[in-house]
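> call design_seq(struct)
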């Protein structure tokens, strides 16, 4: 690389090049009891270790209260009860008493202060889980369908997802040194100075990279929103391979037309024995062609959009050294989770539980956190986190059902009619007060807004409608609002852009309908649209499909205001 091209690199690129172990001075600052936070460059390295330095935005008027968000790496979202109990205990001791299920099947701790950070990280690693690469310019948590085996095939997919996750892990020694051994990596040691990750090189990726698996007809992982996707193809009762997808992603910035959400392209077909090679190949195309001069333009989706599918397939095949098969037919019909009790193929049972905005907590008469702890202690289910921020308790013996239902009832959690259809189908990102990028509320506001939308639905005779509603506090798209039938994207405090027209199978992006709406405007707009929908829908047509058929034609997307 020439000096000129190096100078155009973003700051993140330069610091990765300078300290390719990603150790920064994290170990030294961690050991310093007087420091309540890490320096700016270290906050970038910390992300690769699964940690975000944040401050409590509710308290900004009285100064900056630094705290940390820690995200687990939990491929497919599966944990043992023992591991869950460790997470519960760590959240109680060092976090804000809650666990946050993420939209990528992981858990986040929020509100951890610096004194608790090292202990919490040690605890996670002792439970044989880690947080390595949960954030940063690397492959993130790999998603897989969370529904427990009602047939043997989904178990194979989970194993495939774990293989891909393992193969794409960075190899730096810094993570183990800092969080397990509790030491600062010696940056002067030539071995550390010259370190280059065998897959990622010295500079890692230009930006984050995301992978997911899905099993048609269910698209519960929103697979097409990922940089890399594997869509299972079943023939004769076995998974014969996967359609490989690439170039999905949702993040954008208000007023910047060079950024946009994008649905992935189907590139080709790959057999199960070759998914790791294929995954590495796709990742290295991102590594080598992603834009390292502009982080807003650095995702793989822009490479796909600008160079095209034919170029991408050829480039990928050149790297992996074999030809992909042609994509096989598949069809997604729906997204979403399964709730209530269901029997597994082995005779055991699983219970799908709705978790409002993914937050596992005790609040008022609903004491979900305490209930889950008791169930994990007494009945030891396998814990599965869903991409829609819900939880599944799996592998429960038939004899456990009544006791588990009773524990939940004692803690104010029903297993039947857990929430209205729109709540069960909804998602919100954390936003305020933890997220530094939030422009408006999301997790703390959506439940109230849904209450008002429930009122509207009842008013127009659609009380049981399960329209898919997602909200984020900014346009980064963390709760995947651009795939929802109704998407709310924060624009400013109390103001949201309204997107309409996603579909139930999560294969179609919605479109911007109106900008900067306050709550009263949202409700009046939705009242008018829902009233028309009841009159104009064709048979069982869903609201999102009606919006795409009718509303999109009437109101072409408004020009985006800067
Ligand atoms: Fe996200 C940044 C939370 C899934 C796109 N995301 C953030 C940060 C870390 C804010 C920051 O950079 O300072 C948020 C932390 C908030 C907090 O206080 O916890 C955050 N993202 C989340 C989670 C927790 C939202 C949730 O409701 O669960 C999800 C964690 C998933 C996980 O376990 O790994 C989460 N983020 C997503 C998704 C959805 C997905 O991956 O399926 C997206 C859209 C898909 C995509 O990547 O394109 C997403 N997050 C972003 C972006 C925009 C990236 C871009 O291409 O422009 C940012 C901003 C950034 O990276 O600079 C971001
Ligand atoms: Fe924060 Fe925006 Fe992501 Fe919400 S969508 S968590 S506000 S970055």
């Amino acid at each position: 690389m020439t000096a000129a091209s190096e100078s155009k690199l973003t700051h993140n690129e330069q610091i990765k090049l300078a300290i390719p172990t990603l150790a920064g001075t994290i170990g030294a600052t961690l050991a310093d009891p007087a420091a309540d936070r890490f320096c700016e460059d270290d906050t970038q390295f910390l992300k690769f270790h699964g940690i975000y330095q944040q401050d409590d935005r509710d308290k900004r008027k009285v100064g900056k209260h630094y705290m940390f968000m820690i995200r687990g790496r939990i491929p497919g979202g599966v944990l043992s009860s023992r591991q869950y109990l460790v997470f519960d205990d760590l959240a109680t001791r060092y976090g804000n008493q809650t666990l946050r299920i993420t939209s990528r099947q992981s858990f986040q701790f929020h509100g951890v202060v610096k004194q608790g950070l090292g202990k919490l990280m040690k605890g996670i690693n002792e439970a044989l889980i880690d947080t390595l690469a949960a954030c940063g310019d690397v492959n993130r948590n790999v998603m897989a369908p969370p529904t427990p085996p009602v047939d043997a095939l989904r178990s194979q997919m989970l194993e495939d997802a774990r293989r891909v996750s393992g193969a794409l892990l960075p190899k730096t020694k810094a993570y183990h040194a800092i969080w397990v051994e509790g030491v600062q990596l010696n940056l002067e040691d030539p071995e550390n100075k010259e370190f280059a990750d065998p897959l990622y090189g010295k500079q890692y990726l230009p930006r984050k990279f995301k992978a997911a698996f899905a099993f048609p007809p269910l698209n519960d992982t929103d697979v097409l929103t990922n940089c890399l996707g594997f869509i299972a193809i079943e023939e004769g009762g076995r998974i014969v391979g996967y359609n490989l997808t690439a170039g999905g992603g949702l993040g954008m910035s208000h007023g910047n037309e060079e950024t946009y959400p994008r649905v992935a392209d189907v590139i080709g077909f790959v057999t199960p024995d070759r998914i790791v090679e294929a995954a590495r190949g796709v990742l290295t195309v991102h590594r080598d062609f992603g834009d390292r001069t502009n982080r807003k333009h650095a995702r793989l989706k822009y490479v796909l959009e600008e160079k095209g599918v034919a170029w991408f397939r050829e480039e990928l095949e050149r790297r992996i050294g074999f030809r992909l098969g042609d994509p096989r037919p598949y069809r997604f019909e729906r997204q979403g989770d399964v709730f209530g009790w269901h029997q597994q193929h082995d005779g055991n049972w699983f219970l799908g539980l709705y978790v409002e905005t993914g937050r596992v907590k005790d609040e008022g008469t609903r004491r979900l956190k305490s209930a889950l702890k008791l169930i994990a202690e007494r009945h030891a289910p396998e814990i599965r986190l869903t991409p829609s921020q819900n939880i599944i308790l799996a592998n429960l013996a038939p004899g456990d059902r009544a006791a588990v239902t009773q524990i939940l009832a004692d803690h104010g959690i029903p297993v039947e009619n857990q929430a209205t259809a729109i709540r069960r189908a909804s998602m919100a990102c954390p936003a305020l007060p933890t997220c530094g990028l939030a422009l408006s509320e999301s997790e703390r506001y959506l439940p109230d807004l849904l209450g008002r939308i429930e009122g509207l639905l009842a008013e127009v005779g659609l009380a049981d409608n399960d329209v898919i509603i997602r909200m984020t506090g900014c346009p980064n798209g963390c709760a995947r609002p651009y795939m929802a039938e109704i998407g709310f994207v924060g624009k400013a405090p109390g103001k949201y852009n309204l997107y309409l027209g996603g579909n139930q199978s999560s294969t179609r992006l919605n479109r911007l309908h109106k900008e900067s709406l306050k709550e009263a405007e949202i409700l009046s707009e939705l009242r008018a649209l829902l009233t028309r929908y009841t009159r104009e829908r064709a048979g069982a047509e869903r609201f999102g499909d009606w919006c795409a058929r009718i509303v999109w034609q009437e109101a072409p997307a408004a020009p985006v205001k800067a």
